[in-house]
Specification:
About 2% of the residues have low confidence. The protein has 7 helices and no strands. It is mainly alpha-helical. The chain has a domain of 144 residues. Helix 2 packs antiparallel against helix 4 and helix 5 packs antiparallel against helix 7. The chain is elongated, with a radius of gyration of 33 Å. 62% of the residues lie in helices and 0% in strands.
Length: 209
Amino acid sequence: MHTRIFARWISVDHRPGLTALIILFLTSALFGAWSIMGSWATHASVLLVPGAIGVPFGIPPVRLSPLGGTTAGFFLVDLIAAAAMLVVAAMRLENSVRRHPNGGAARAFWAAWGASVCGVIVGNLIRAIYTTFVVDANLIGYLGILVGAVLFAAIWGGAVGILPGIVAALVRLASRPRATDPAPLVGPEPLIGPEPLIGPEPHRGVATP
């Protein structure tokens, strides 16, 4: 079964989606490297404002250890959210291949972009729900964090999904089957000579009385 799944995902129709998933995973790992994202966020501090109200920053990150003074709970939730993001994106891409098996580059771009947006929304909702329990938010705070998480996740997903979409479109263009060689020319049918002339039947003499 695992062999069939692997063979399906490396097929020509699934290569754009598989490449998009790899790019999304690498982007998630980039967000997990706080040595990179932290220095970037300090130069664009406005991006940290949603975090002040409990809205998750960026997309679900993949990292090997807890960040700074955060607890193991946040670390595990981030990993679960990242896994959910990738699973949702894979399901969306699989659905797109089933519905449009012969889609072009534009279809591959929008499929990868939309899958990234949906995946980030689901992943950040998981992170936001955990945050509401940690901060012991009331009903209004709970709803506010969830709504903010969806809105900002859609923005982050739309921005992050551009790169997977472009790569998926390029892979689709590169994996298009080339035009087949033209069929060999078939020569004219051999000329068939005229049928042999058959003379008139010989006249039989008529007996004279």
